[in-house]
Specification:
The complex is a heterodimer of chains A (about 120) and B (about 110). Chain A contains no helices and 11 strands. Chain A is an all-beta fold. In chain B, the strands form 2 sheets. In chain B, strands 2, 4, 5, 6, 9, 10 and 11 form a 7-stranded mixed sheet that branches. In chain B, strands 1-3-8-7 form a 4-stranded antiparallel sheet, with no helix packed on it. The radius of gyration of chain B is 13 Å and the shape is globular. Classes of the chains: A mainly beta (about 120), B mainly beta (about 110). Chains A and B meet through strand 4, strand 5, strand 9 and strand 10 of A and strand 4, strand 5, strand 9 and strand 10 of B.
Chain lengths: ~120, ~110
């Protein structure tokens, strides 16, 4: 079984400061990893994904994440926060093989950006 | 232009009623999903269909029944609604060879 832990249900940063959202996973085999963002009253939008290859992946809106197998982590970062980054962020994993590719989500991190 | 659409966006109904939520995707994907997001924003898979065949059926009450008339549609029918069914339901789709899922805007179901 796979599981995802997001440390910190709420994170506040000042505009222009570094954003760091933490995600650790548990899986018997390396899974595929995703970060999604949810703005208020909207659906989920894919920020970035890791499947294979380069462990540092870049996504939309200036976000990036690094897959660290030894630490079973996939933390999300952005060098400089914007007010528009305020949203709920979800880390998710899916099996890397088989026909069942359901996403298992973390509990989410609410990002607040302070002016 | 909408990739994954759901109707209705809001649904308010009384306990005991039967309701349906519709989902359509125009991405040509072969797999569709239903997720439930509870009041604490926790997201959990409910069902998955691949080429109209049910491949994931998590532990949900059998009052919930998905139906896939074709690859582009996956509807969710709920019988005898209960207060605990109040949540936001998201439809998603993906292509087997490409792993990310695309989500619809969600349907907020409120049971009174």
């Amino acid at each position: 079984a796979q599981s995802v832990t997001q440390l910190g249900s709420h994170v506040s940063v000042s505009e222009g400061a570094l954003v760091l959202l933490r995600c650790n996973y548990s899986s018997s085999v390396p899974p595929y990893l995703f970060w999604y963002v949810q703005y208020p009253n909207q659906g989920l939008q894919l920020l970035l994904k890791y499947t294979t290859g380069a462990t540092l992946v870049k996504g939309i809106n200036g976000f990036e994440a690094e897959f660290k197998k030894s630490e079973t982590s996939f933390h999300l970062t952005k060098p400089s926060a914007h007010m528009s980054d305020a949203a709920e962020y979800f880390c998710a994993v899916s099996p890397s093989s088989g026909s069942a590719r359901q996403l298992t989500f973390g509990s989410g991190t609410q990002l607040t950006v302070l002016p | 232009d909408t990739a994954v659409s759901q109707t209705p966006k809001y649904l308010v109904t009384q306990m005991g009623n039967d309701k349906s939520i519709k989902c359509e995707q125009n991405l040509g994907h072969d797999t569709m999903y239903w997720y439930k997001q509870d009041s604490k924003k926790f997201l959990k898979i409910m069902f998955s269909y691949n080429n109209k065949e049910l491949i994931i059926n998590e532990t949900v009450p059998n009052r919930f029944s998905p139906k896939s008339p074709d690859k582009a549609h996956l509807n969710l029918h709920i019988n005898s609604l209960e207060l605990g069914d109040s949540a936001v339901y998201f439809c998603a789709s993906s292509q087997a060879s490409v792993y990310e899922q695309y989500f619809g805007p969600g349907t907020r179901l409120t049971v009174t």
